[in-house]
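Slides due. Your pick:
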Amino acid sequence: MLHVLIVDDDPAAAAELAAALGEREGYLVIGPAGDLRSATELARSSNVHIAFIDAQLACFDSAYRIADELNGLGIQCVFVTATEPPFLMPELAVAWLEKPFTGQAVARCLELATSSLFASPSAGVKAVQPSD
């Protein structure tokens, strides 16, 4: 079973994503974490494989900084955002999930992240939009 961490400081948004992720077999949802410290603690203690990170965190820690730290732990990251990130960072995230999202879009992000766990380095960030 793969462990999926949610990093989001909005409890309602985290719960919505947790519900969508919870519908997928073979994945266990961990979190949410709201900042870098809690994200890395949960990642280490829960053997996390994939992280969905809100690109617009209100805390001082940026999504990019959190993704960088989690990547260092071998975790595949997906940015979650209502708008395309100002710049894509394929070395930090395998995909970005556009809000509002569908279950199908969440499943596609999980597929991309899972494939990246067992494949050579990604060719780039893939956008997964609600219609995907």
Notes: The helical segments are 11-22, 36-45, 63-72, 103-117. Strands lie at 2-7, 27-33, 50-54, 76-81, 95-98, 126-128. The domain at 2-128 is CATH 3.40.50.2300 (Rossmann fold). The two ends are 25 Å apart (CA to CA).
